[in-house]
Write a structure and sequence with these properties.
By secondary structure, this protein is an alpha/beta fold. 29% of the residues lie in helices and 19% in strands. Helix 7 links the parallel strand 10 (194-197) and strand 11.
């Protein structure tokens, strides 16, 4: 398969290019497109065969649900059975934007989209290219991140091409994604609503709108083998470069990482460190890459996946990563880092 690649203006996408991409979706094809979070790999969300194509292209486990994307609030009602009052409040506050909600699904939604569950994840993205594509296609677009399953999510079209060139029909290049981490996912089919994946819309932000938001216990711990995920990214190792990743916890993490790096280098390993602007000069490793300032977690989130992918470009064997606070956007950053490391944490004294 030859993958068509088209550059589009992120704010004012070319109508002819959008029409071409929409036609591909209408005919059961796959199109990668930018959103405000990461690049998504889209298919007709009501076409079971097309959705199966997403799983095949990504190498994605079949029990890992997809998210349906809409371009107008009126497009929600046909694909869900119920819209709880708490969901309406969250929609009013955060849609369009980087928030996905879990609803009881309507019969028209294929089991392929939901991983066989009776709930469906829905998002109303704010990115002009995504909104234009969904509107022109005239159907809900099922779209996980546009990467090989398990690898860091793509924040640039070049990441998509590296993973999926020749496997999908089209890539719309709208530049770098602004947020850099996938959307927050909250289950509004239960009371109180439960965060299943943290993101740019934080628990603190949502609790200004609704009284109580719970956090799923699997966010920062390894799920059991029989765990059945209600949302993307809950069960499997994700966001991982080729290198083995370890998180280092404790006040003296710089010294601990340097000691570990020295031992690995003596064993002939190429060592990388995922650092911050404040600490990057303190490391003695082969590759030291900063994700930004600790004082700006939004910047860290934006850069995280791109930096994880850069370790592959440097052919590192092992990567040691700093840790971040478990509040605000720090919760989303740590959720991604924990999965990238396979929950391997080295605790310093």
């Amino acid at each position: 398969m030859k993958t068509i690649q088209k550059k589009v203006d992120a704010q004012y996408p070319d109508a002819d290019i959008i029409a071409q991409a929409a036609q591909i979706l209408q005919h059961g094809g796959l199109v990668a497109f930018p959103t405000e979070t990461v690049y998504g790999l889209g298919a007709n969300g009501l076409d079971e065969a097309a959705c199966k194509g997403i799983y095949q292209a990504k190498g994605r486990p079949s029990d890992n649900p997809l998210i349906l994307h809409i371009s107008h609030i009126d497009e929600l009602r046909p694909i869900v059975r119920d819209i709880p009052k708490t969901a309406q409040k969250l929609m009013d506050a955060f849609w369009p934007g980087p928030l996905t909600m879990i609803f009881p699904k309507a019969d028209c939604v294929p089991d392929t989209v939901t991983g066989g569950l009776d709930t469906v994840a829905v998002r109303f993205p704010s990115h002009p290219v995504a909104m234009a594509l969904i509107h022109k296609a005239g159907l809900p677009i099922a779209a996980p991140s546009a990467n090989t399953s398990g690898k860091p999510s793509p924040t640039r079209a070049e990441h998509v091409a590296l993973d999926l060139n020749g496997k999908i029909d089209m890539i719309l290049d709208g530049g770098t994604a602004a947020w850099g981490l996938e959307s927050t996912i909250v289950d509004v089919s239960v009371t109180p609503p439960v965060i299943l994946r943290p993101g740019a819309v934080t628990k603190e932000m949502m609790e200004q709108v609704v009284k109580q938001i719970a956090i799923d216990p699997t966010l920062l711990q390894k799920p059991t083998a029989d765990f059945r995920p209600k949302a993307p990214g809950m069960k499997y190792t994700h966001y991982a470069p080729k290198a083995d990743v370890f998180l280092v916890q404790g006040d003296n993490f710089v010294d601990v990482i340097n000691d570990l790096a020295k031992k690995q280098k003596a064993a002939g390993k190429k060592v990388g460190v995922l650092a911050t602007d404040e600490t990057k000069v303190n490391y003695d490793a082969d590759v030291v890459l900063s994700v930004g300032s600790r004082e700006n977690l939004e910047e860290v989130g934006t850069n995280l996946f791109h930096v994880l992918r850069q370790f592959d470009a440097w052919d590192t064997d092992v990567v040691y990563a700093e840790m971040f606070p478990l509040s605000g956007e720090g919760l989303a950053i740590m959720n991604r880092l924990q999965k990238s490391a396979g929950y391997r944490v080295i605790k310093s004294e």
